[in-house]
Amino acid sequence: MIQEGDLVFLYKDERRNYLLKIQGGQLHTDLGYFDLKRLIGKEFGQAIETNLGHAFYVLKPYLYEMVMKIKRKTQILYPKDIGTIITRANIFPGARVIECGSGSGSLTTALANFVRPGGKVYSYDRNQEFSDNAKKNVERYGLGEWVEFKLREVIEEFDEKEVDFVMIDIGSQWDLIDAAYKSLKGGCRLASICPTFEQLTRFVFTLEEKGFTNIESMEVLLRKILVRKGKTRPEQQMPSHTGWLVFASKIFPKQTPGPQEPTIAIEEPPVTNEE
Fold it and tell me: The pTM is what?
């Protein structure tokens, strides 16, 4: 049963859908309004009608909508990119993750969702407004327990060590490669998103110099399909280029064998057969 304070996704169609926390008040739409407290005690999947008799369905909120409906102060990472990051990084319940560049909290939300209940996301940003907004977005979704926001600029190293994943989302990604290396466990991954080819090239070449391998660069494109009787076709608009994703794994320097100790031959007296 839906309780006060729960997060719900009210759906009428692709244009009329709302992600809400049940805290009283009314929702007004072009199809009428209803009191949100009427949702308390209902089951997910049931319908609620506006005062004009139009039905909205009460659905379980899902991560895609949580990411897309955050309050934005910056450009966000889209679900098409976040899905690739989650599956190519070392993210699991209990993982410890560093994110540099909180932005509006879209990736922070997804990371917190997957590291709970025993993990933690350490989200760094030097901008007070961005950090505060990202924190509000994460807390709105009930994920604040698994995120620690840090308001400071990282230059040489992060506070945390032996983490499972580092995400760098700043303009000069290469500046934080050394800091990421110091914090990552051996064999674990770093990722970043690069808006331009110039950033991508410099970042990848610097990764090669700094002790990373398994370097992958890619772009993720997503196009929806409009399914209609007799006229199914791709949508004309799509979120195409958002940035190039780069992934790399930390390795340790190859061990150079030290100087060998000289071998000393010890001559033993010959064995004789004595009667």
Answer: 0.85
